[in-house]
Amino acid sequence: MNDWGELSAPVVYNGVIYAINGKWTFAIDVETGRQLWRTPVEPEPGVDRRGSRAARRCFTTASSFA
User: Fold this and answer.
1) Residue 21, domain extent
2) pTM of the entire predicted model
3) What is the DSSP pairing of strand 24-29 with strand 16-20?
4) Average pLDDT for 3-23
5) Is residue 28 part of a domain?
6) Which pLDDT does position 42 carry in this prediction?
7) CA angle 63, 65, 66 (to 5 degrees)
8) What does the pLDDT look like over 18-66, one tens digit per residue?
9) Could you write out the three-class secondary structure of 5-41?
10) Phi (first) and psi of residue 23, to 5 degrees
11) Which has the closest alpha carbon to 50: 17, 14, 7?
12) How many structural domains is the chain composed of?
């Protein structure tokens, strides 16, 4: 994980997994696991998609309420 977190869930189409994290977009062959390509993520200038520290600490589990 990086400061940007995960931006989306992976997608599989025609035998290729497409995935994105905070720094790269990847295409990976499903059968071989070989990376087909990757390209850098270029966020819009001035947009901070990391969220606030408070938002990152708000996750709870069911056991938190026991």
Assistant:
1) 11-65
2) 0.57
3) antiparallel
4) 81
5) yes
6) 79
7) 65
8) 998 878 899 999 999 999 999 998 777 877 666 554 444 444 445 444 4
9) CCCCCCEEECCEEEEECCCEEEEEECCCCCEEEEEEC
10) -120, -30
11) 7
12) 1
